[in-house]
Hints:
The structure holds three protein chains of three kinds.
Chain A: H1 8-34, H2 42-60, H3 63-87, H4 92-110, H5 129-132, H6 136-140, H7 145-163, H8 165-175, H9 177-182, H10 187-213, H11 225-235, H12 240-262, H13 269-289, H14 291-297
Helix pairs in contact in A: 1-7, 1-10, 1-11, 1-12, 2-3, 2-4, 2-10, 2-11, 3-4, 3-10, 7-8, 7-12, 11-12, 11-13, 12-13
Chain B: E1 3-14, E2 17-28, E3 32-36, H1 43-50, E4 58-63, E5 66-67, H2 73-78, E6 81-84, H3 96-102, H4 110-123, H5 139-151, E7 157-161, H6 169-184, E8 188-193, H7 196-202, E9 205-210, E10 213-218, H8 225-233, E11 250-259, E12 269-277, E13 281-285, H9 292-300, E14 310-312, E15 315-316, H10 322-328, E16 330-333, H11 348-356, E17 363-364, E18 367-368, H12 370-383, H13 400-412, E19 418-422, H14 430-445, E20 449-453, H15 457-463, E21 466-471, E22 474-475, E23 479-480, H16 486-512
Parallel strand pairs in B: 3-8, 3-9, 6-7, 7-8, 13-20, 13-21, 16-19, 19-20
Antiparallel strand pairs in B: 1-2, 1-4, 4-5, 9-10, 11-12, 11-14, 14-15, 17-18, 21-22, 21-23
Helix pairs in contact in B: 3-5, 11-12, 11-13, 12-13, 13-14
Chain C: E1 2-6, H1 12-36, H2 41-49, H3 51-54, H4 59-85, H5 93-111, H6 119-145, H7 149-171, H8 205-223, H9 225-235, H10 237-242, H11 247-271, H12 285-295, H13 300-324, H14 328-345, H15 347-350, E2 351-355
Helix pairs in contact in C: 1-2, 1-14, 2-13, 4-8, 4-9, 4-11, 4-12, 4-13, 5-6, 5-7, 5-11, 5-12, 6-7, 6-11, 8-9, 8-13, 12-13, 12-14, 13-14
Amino acid sequence: MDLSAINPVVLTASLMVAATPILLAAIGELVVEKAGVLNLGVEGMMIIGAICGFAIAVETQSPLLGFIAAALGGAVLSMLFGFMTQVLLSNQVATGLALTLFGLGLSSLMGQSYVGIKAPSTPSLNLGPLSDLPVVGKILFSHDLMVYVSIAIIAGVWYMLRYTRTGLVLRAVGESHDAAHALGYKVIRIRLLAIGFGGACAGLGGAYLSLVRVPQWTEGMTAGAGWIALAIVVFASWKPWRVMIGAYLFGGITVLQLNLQAAGAKIPVELLSMSPYLITILVLVIISSDRRRAALSAPADLGKSFHASL
Amino acid sequence: MTELLKISGLTKAYPGVVANDDVSFTVAEGEVHALLGENGAGKSTLVKMIYGLVKPDSGTMDLHAAPYTPSEPRAARASGVAMVFQHFSLFEALSVAENIALGMENPPKMHELSQRIRDVSETYGLPLDPDRLIGELSAGERQRVEIIRCLLQDPKLLIMDEPTSVLTPQEVDVLFETLRKLSAEGTAILYISHKLEEIRALCDAATILRLGKVVATCIPREQSAREMAEMMVGQALHTPKASGAEPGDTVLQVSNLSLPSATPFGTTLTDISLDLKRGEILGIGGVAGNGQDEFLNALSGETKTAPDAVQFEGQPIGNLGPNERREIGVLCAPEERLGHAAAPDMSLTENAVLTAVQRKELAQNSFVNWGKSRDYAKEIIKAFDVRTPGPGNAARSLSGGNLQKFVIGREVLQNPDVLVVNQPTWGVDAAAAADIRQALMDLAAKGAGVIVISQDLDELMEVADRFCALAGGRLSSSRPTQGLTVDEIGLMLGGAHDAEQEAAPEAEPTHAE
Amino acid sequence: MIRLEKRPSPSRAWTIATPLVAVALTMVAGSILFMILGKDPFAAIKTIFYDPLFHPDFAAFSRPQLLVKAGPLILIAIGLSMGFKAGIWNIGAEGQYIIGALAGAAVGLALYPAESFLIYPAMVIAGALGGWAWAMIPAILRTKFRTNEILVSLLLVYVAENILASAAVGWLRNPEGGGFPGSRNLSKWASSANPELISGTGMHWGVVAAFIAVILAYVVMSRHLLGFQIQLAGQAPRAARFAGVNPSRLVVLCLGISGMLAGMAGLFEVTGPAGQISIDFNSGYGFTAIIVAFLGRLNPIGILLAGLLMALTYIGGELAQFMLGLPAAAIQAFQGMLLFFLLGVDVLSNYRIRIGTGKAA
Lengths: 310, 513, 361
């Protein structure tokens, strides 16, 4: 094994890339859950985003248009979930699962003719002298636009939830939809908007996989990323900046295990590639074992259907 | 006085029930106007229409002599109509200031808002810290939040839905002071209640509803409570008769029971002791949210305690589960009918199995005998006059009163040695409430020990032999109800309250964690 | 304006009718999907739903396949449905299915080439235990640490897939296989084979187990106190605790049963239709079974029918792939759609739809 092949600077830079898809999906789901909705269809929306983004980017040769299409694709699929759970009052857990199963099937159907094609490359931003800084330049200032967009979304969500009226209303709806309704807030409309935002973010995350991280289209390429995003929301105790920490930690583990595989570590390949999932489970256990904290930070009406009876 | 609100011919029907039928009345500026009626008389629907939550099928409303058709609460608030709900529309995990901001159209910046909250709370004698989380507040404090939220908008009409049901007598006095002050400043108050003495003390005029219709209007100060009660109920009331039997041996004993709260906003029970004798009814008064649920859970076995903390005929049972306690004869009926005492979507037959499976032998070798279970459900329906098409109907299809009769009947017909009921007549119409009280008294007369936990002090005075107060998770010592005055009760509730205040600083760090 | 109005009691008629409505709607939506793909929708629907059973050339081959595919789906879905009813969401049956297959196969292969009629039952037990043990991970994490069982059970699928990969290329690889991945062929070794019991029917031990599971589940859910407690816990958790139901015990029980049945399904598959442990012997039955459970309304008899229907779409899908060049993924999307429609029309059993009455909101 040659550990010297693992360069910490490259590792750190690439962990940001590895973390971005999950970061995007997780921050979207955080907003959805803050509004009191549990959408387990993140995996499905991500993979639809992956294929929509990939297909449009290939057809137009514009990664930017690809990302826009991915966000739209994810949002459209999420609206299906929104319609079912908010209007038809279907069970959120079951509908989320259905969304994932349907998304996986639909994406491979849509991706029939895109297997084995290369995506147009997404350029890194030229940040001039910043990018040329030693170490820091490579780690922080040599990425493509989406890495910065994802961080901007985190910051935006944090600001929105903490300082704006929109954020306050969103949290209120997630805490008690009955009380919010009694005050005259449009619970269903607010939740639909949150679900749509979550879908768009998941779509972006999926497209980042197919356009930047891999960059290729293969069936089922999200490989559980959506589920890990869900776990990261729990890990983050529904706090935006902790989502970033969680995603980057997870990205670090992923990149490290890939590097170890490449370096020929004497650890079985399978053990390495299952390690991100095992560590996610471990982290979930640690977070959820703190009963008081878990109960306080989760939105009180998470996953409950709202029906204005009178 | 000038006319503020005029209601003309409001009608609202729901499938199978006309909630309001051609309701008309007027409220003048600065008037305290009572809306009086039993549960189910249509008071809530009426005020929801005034507050823009429900649209009338027909009829008109005028505010300041101009047509008033609020499409949503926001519009109502913009017109100067504010409402304090019976079940508070508050968000436990948000702060007082955030909650108030949510109820305002254009809230100022948070620190400005906090200052205004402090100002208003001082002016009206309603102390409140804007930075505390709602979940940490008592029911009385929560009501203050609602009231201040309304006051910040300078309402012309303030609607209050059963505001005193969560208050101690002393707190009621404070509230009435505030309301009189508001009224003197020209704010009209629409005061919904079924408590006649309160209305006589506070209100200038009253509109009485029965089955959705206005049956009378009166000036409360000029009527006796009895007269108003008959207008409200439309028939002579049946008052339960006490047995007058001598209490027997101690059947249930609770000694130094302490339980930390299981949920972040729950109540911690501290050092509770009581003893219950055969043939008596022990009334536990106190405002909901002061440990009633937690205490009932500890008695039912849903929460287990140290074995000796709860004893049945001298045997420790604190560590037994609900079914083991049922087997020896300790039965409970929790407050929340739908979801706790009964499963909403299950049939009455299934709900009969829920607690009666052991004592009524509704199963052999763990296989349910559905025929026998149905018979038991029918027996309850018949004995307790539960109005339902049959035992196959879902629990949630029953009205509150009928379901409560079913729940109480299910336990009473199992001939318990101990029965603990929490808020047995909450949200139940007067006739059903009287039946339920009579059933509890009959049960005690047959030699069972009965504990009634209730926030309705009148009810406890009526049925209980002894009274004690639960406040802040502490239980006062008991006193015979015979000769107990409202002031004394207030002191018992308040005394426990003071203990809570003293304990508060110690409790603080646990929340900060 | 369309409004929903809660029914006083769930409608029994709609409870039975909704799956049929969902199937009909899926056929309509599926036709549109096939049309977009440039296929004749009527031909496609006929190929999927009719030809496998009645086409003179294919029915002889396809009909037995119905039971072969329905067996594991029903077996897994029965287990899942009990948990779903109780509000316990095991969505990692795929992982329990894999681990069950591995455990059972490992026991068998450890005894190779002995011949005994005791070997196969031992393998079945090992398979059940393997699935059970894998399901115990989310069960124990939930009861001890309140960790969400949905996420844990699902994430464990990926872990199980990696274990499967290491088994297929490593510790269970056929030593006489010329270095190719995959275990010995279990279906060709008499002691470990799960053969077709009645020729031409597709009936194998797994199908028998599925039928037994349906009957047992039916009895438990409708007559036994455990079934009552499961339903109570799902509908009203507080009432369940009031009725003396221990939630932790129920979690362990429900996850255990579903894991056990999934593990057995895996073992039956790997010793029969699949024949050997290979890197991709699992064909997503663990996930499709979720659809089957819901389509069957979490009712054992319903699941039996739903399993057969879902098996039909698998076989019909393969046929359509072969006959019409319909992409394999189309059938997956089709199955997903079915679940969607089912959940959507479910609203009819609990709510009445009212078309606007005047000014009503």
